[in-house]
Amino acid sequence: xxxxxxxxxxxxxxxxxxxxxxxxxxxxxxxxxxxxxxxxxxxxxxxxxxxxxxxxxxxxxxxxxxxxxxxxxxxxxxxxxxxxxxxxxxxxxxxxxxxxxxxxxxxxxxxxxxxxxxxxxxxxxxxxxxxxxxxxxxxxxxxxxxxxxxxxxxxxxxxxxxxxxxxxxxxxxxxxxxxxxxxxxxxxxxxxxxxxxxxxxxxxxxxxxxxxxxxxxxxxxxxxxxxxxxxxxxxxxxxxxxxxxxxxxxxxxxxxxxxxxxxxxxxxxxxxxxxxxxxxxxxxxxxxxxxxxxxxxxxxxxxxxxxxxxxxxxxxxxxxxxxxxxxxxxxxxxxxxx
Amino acid sequence: xxxxxxxxxxxxxxxxxxxxxxxxxxxxxxxxxxxxxxxxxxxxxxxxxxxxxxxxxxxxxxxxxxxxxxxxxxxxxxxxxxxxxxxxxxxxxxxxxxxxxxxxxxxxxxxxxxxxxxxxxxxxxxxxxxxxxxxxxxxxxxxxxxxxxxxxxxxxxxxxxxxxxxxxxxxxxxxxxxxxxxxxxxxxxxxxxxxxxxxxxxxxxxxxxxxxxxxxxxxxxxxxxxxxxxxxxxxxxxxxxxxxxxxxxxxxxxxxxxxxxxxxxxxxxxxxxxxxxxxxxxxxxxxxxx
Lengths: 338, 290
Hints:
The structure holds two protein chains of two kinds.
Chain A: H1 32-59, H2 63-66, H3 71-76, H4 81-105, H5 117-122, H6 127-130, H7 143-164, E1 169-177, E2 181-188, H8 191-202, E3 205-215, E4 221-229, H9 248-261, E5 273-277, E6 280-289, H10 293-305, E7 311-319, E8 325-336
Antiparallel strand pairs in A: 1-2, 1-7, 2-4, 3-4, 5-6, 6-8, 7-8
Helix pairs in contact in A: 7-8, 7-10
Chain B: E1 6-11, E2 15-22, E3 27-35, H1 44-58, E4 65-70, E5 76-81, H2 89-100, E6 108-115, E7 123-130, H3 131-136, H4 140-145, E8 151-154, H5 155-166, E9 173-178, E10 182-189, E11 192-200, H6 206-219, E12 226-230, H7 237-248, E13 255-258, E14 266-267, H8 280-286
Parallel strand pairs in B: 1-4, 3-14, 4-8, 9-12, 12-13
Antiparallel strand pairs in B: 1-2, 2-3, 5-7, 6-7, 9-10, 10-11
Helix pairs in contact in B: 5-8
């Protein structure tokens, strides 16, 4: 039976939108909040005490307190007039040091010392750094453009491994990291299968290395490959602008719906980690899914074709039982600060 | 002391559906539909004055409680799957609801129900009605008139309650509520409402109704394709007959039948109950007062 609470006064107060997620801790003590508050209070008191001591050390006791604080206490804390005089002398010596550095730089004739502002500005020549330079590298791009690159690179990586993996190869770990790095710990039925696999990969990736190859008694070969998949071309990518903060939730919902459409059930979407960096915000979603490889590949394809502003920063897939896999995906979105 | 009588009122676009019920005895005393000149959702005083004059004209006994069901098109109705990692299901529902609306959550009053229970919630159904509308039902004027509802609930939930109390929810059931301005259908079993489909006023046609039913049944391929029809459009005999016939002609036949009898409920002798399929929301909402 559904009992309505619409008219109850209790529900009249709007609740906050804090999403709490199970931490995995088994400790269910109920006075956790009280303990936390007490610890917080102690911490604040400690910080305040340290701040007061530091102020007193630097500026000495204020005139009003000078005759009130007992001399032994002041001496013990290093607040006596003699000690503050020493501190002042040290500070003034330290303040003089930058001048010595400036003198040393005067050996370089290209940097005018003690010149007019106009002369100094004339020596600044930014064009020597940017002349004929086309921003084609991932790290040179504005951050918002990187997510489009990540989406395409993630799809390239998944499709590369999908097409390059012959029968007889299994993965213990398969990882991708933006911009185009991959890492795989694989098992081949025999060394011949491994060779075929490596040949397939070589023709599809830009960097490839193999290490830690171990042959087991049954002839299986366990080995690690890592390198970089084909880089997407920035000129072919649709530029992405910073997302408005009010649209962040819509982007999360759109991402979830796109994943669901492609039979990928993502968990962890309700716990975005937000970080303010200067003039923009970075929103990271740490998600996991038990979707199979073809479903993930379809999702990656749909994601790169979509206008969703989330890119894929990291991906790690591992087997989770027979014919099953568990994958962790770290999505990232850049939003404007205001 | 007599048995508590509850007046259930279902608000429609231009009419009110009323039902006087003794929910504890599962007895329906009277039902009726009353045309109104205006939308009671926008002005609850319309509902209060209309119901007041209806009671006095019919010389009805004193009503102890009033429960109101509002149409689903006046609220936001969502079915939400709660992820296993969500520690606080209620906060999760609030967050998801807030993500789905283009205004602040504080502007809405939510009615959330968790299935199978709140502690181990797997799914939730939530109806959000604008706070100013809810507040207008709590006005002093309405309180003085004696028609301030003790319960306010979306008609879909009222029908779910009625289905549970009358026939039970063993085996999956489908209810189609076809009103003049809105059509909704829900599928439910013991675990609660499982799926929900709605059709706005501009899209209402027999074909569109059958499409939403097909889409719902495609989620439950093993379910018996039987639909209970209620709502304002059941008064339109031609429409109902055509809908039933079209459903039978589908590639996979759908059996639609008007929900005209409520098992486990007794009806007052000598009263007219031909409008029962239209007033089921009004009957259902009284059950939440038990």
